[in-house]
Amino acid sequence: MSQPQLETLLQAADGLIFDCDGTLVDSLPAYADAWRAAFAASGKVMDTAWHADRCGLCETQLMEQFEHSNQVTLDRPRVVATMRQHYLANLSRHLRELTQVSAIAKRFAGVKPMAVASSGSREIVLHSLAALGLVELFDAIVTFDDVGKAKPDPAIHLQAAQQLGLPPERCLVFEDSAQGLEAARRGRLPVVDVTRLAQP
């Protein structure tokens, strides 16, 4: 997508909704390290490429696929607790701001209503955004914990639009994953694939 095309969409939107991981924040190394540590208790080694292919999945979806791929039954509450603890303990070492998209959020903070809509846990999303000084930019933050459904279900996007007080079709969504893009389409929200943005 060219810069003029993006600008047209930005000016037409009444509100902006951003995914977190892979859109505002490069958290892939942090998640890979944390999930590897959590899955190790099952006696199985998580391949980094396997994890990278599943970016955009919520915790439950990822554990389901790990169980299927490795023919194991996980103690899911324990795995999640271990993963989150490891992620938060190593946050400052792994996390990086994705400035091409965060610059848009900074530009429109206080100008247009803005929300974060993530399939991640509220705890991790809030800590990730806060660690990079981004959390205060947003009027609402909606996560899997708030709606109980993960993308590609549109519930997270629709709830974010509702919290902004806007019709979904008046909100421009920024996503990086197949699940996120599909969720926006199902909810009939206009969406930008940030992996296709032209470099400034």
Automatic annotation (TrEMBL):
MF terms in GO: sugar-phosphatase activity
SUPFAM superfamilies in the record: HAD-like
Pfam families assigned to the protein according to its UniProt record, in alphabetical order: Hydrolase
Matching CDD domains: HAD_BPGM-like
Transmembrane residue ranges: none
UniProt xrefs under PANTHER family: FRUCTOSE-1-PHOSPHATE PHOSPHATASE, GLYCEROL-1-PHOSPHATE PHOSPHOHYDROLASE 1-RELATED
Protein name: HAD family phosphatase
Organism: Pseudomonas putida
